[in-house]
Design brief:
Two copies of one chain form a homodimer.
Chain A (H helix, E strand, L loop, with lengths): L4 E9 L4 H13 E10 L6 H12 L4 E5 L36 H15 L4 E3 L15 H15 L7 E3 L7 H10 L3 H7 L10 E2 L2 E2 L5 H17 L7
Parallel strand pairs in A: 1-2, 1-4, 2-3, 4-5
Antiparallel strand pairs in A: 6-7
Helix pairs in contact in A: 5-7
Chain lengths: ~240, ~240
Amino acid sequence: MIQSYNDEDALVLVSGGQDSVTCLFWALKNFKKVHCITFDYSQKHSKEIEIAQNICKKLGLTQKIVDISFLKDLVISNLFEGQNDVNEKHKLNENIPSSFVPYRNLIFLTLASAWASTINVKNIVAGVCQTDYSGYADCRDVFVKSAQTTLNLATDFKDKNVVIHTPLMWLTKCEEFKMADELGCLDFIINETLTCYNGVEKLNDFGKGCGVCPSCELRKKGFYEYKKKYQNSGNNE
Amino acid sequence: MIQSYNDEDALVLVSGGQDSVTCLFWALKNFKKVHCITFDYSQKHSKEIEIAQNICKKLGLTQKIVDISFLKDLVISNLFEGQNDVNEKHKLNENIPSSFVPYRNLIFLTLASAWASTINVKNIVAGVCQTDYSGYADCRDVFVKSAQTTLNLATDFKDKNVVIHTPLMWLTKCEEFKMADELGCLDFIINETLTCYNGVEKLNDFGKGCGVCPSCELRKKGFYEYKKKYQNSGNNE
């Protein structure tokens, strides 16, 4: 799994959720120095921002917070505060969940690359994953690779070209819990991260969350699979 | 030159400069209905915003203004207000002008696509041009085509895929003045648009501007070439 990036820095997109924080620990293991960037876009689960701040503080990492709450005036999504149930279908396309924020990950990656150019970092780490991509086109590998190409064509910085690392791309949630265990951060992931669409901070055995939104469902299912497969204790199911 | 888009709408990126406003007239000729989007990013020539507003008002067009002034806290460029001379070399790369704003056009195209998805428009028109691209990598055709691919991979909207039109891509400034003449908007371009990096509104025969910044130099040179070649009157040189 591990390539040698140890003499380079990385910028990690940290939302405060399970995926990004698992990536953060992966980056801490694989890069010389780790910087963080967090986006505030008026998401329903805006407690993620506070949580992301606490996590960066606990780990002693620098964090750039970028307010892009103007996004809610540009695109349609039920993920924004004050919008309807995220379990509905998307207004733009009934085949995708209403929680989809069009172009969100491209905006994130572009602004992260912008900040990376300023702090002289070329490695970007993002917790996107194609395995359980839930209809989010911008979590797919083909999108990320195309984005990297476009980002580098936008600047022509040559030896400073950005490289986007996506260590979770082909993992299931179950495998992601195993990865956290291997990285020595499983307890941290369970106790500190928040992925819940409803921003509920109730602590369950699989972590914080309401336990019923699509995001909690995915996390819960993955956790119990992990427990059963790797800890041989199916008694929580 | 003209394909048949006449039953479709378009969203034009309008900065208030010569290029975008020439594109605006091109779009008015080629699309059923034209919408405008303008970005405020604390550019030195921020009078462009007012000018863009006046132009949209004069032409009776709807205009979305998006404040992305947070950009100045993310990337290095002398194009931002309060920064040094735009004639210097860029701090990130001495081969590009200091006026280069890394990732600017990708941010513009992404946010324009975001708004386009909301107003149900798939055609985006941008006044980028490779001919006199001044070292701006994100004005090149290869960048725009890659951006279109990435934008569509980000959403997977299928029949609503965005198409980025760049009618100026291979034109010289001289040819752009000729195009404006053919579109019947040459006087409008001269009298109403502002391209000057220093935001000087002094009216010259080639249009508004300080007359000495790289952008004015390019415009002036193109105008006199146009006059000489197509109006057979070299007396302004």
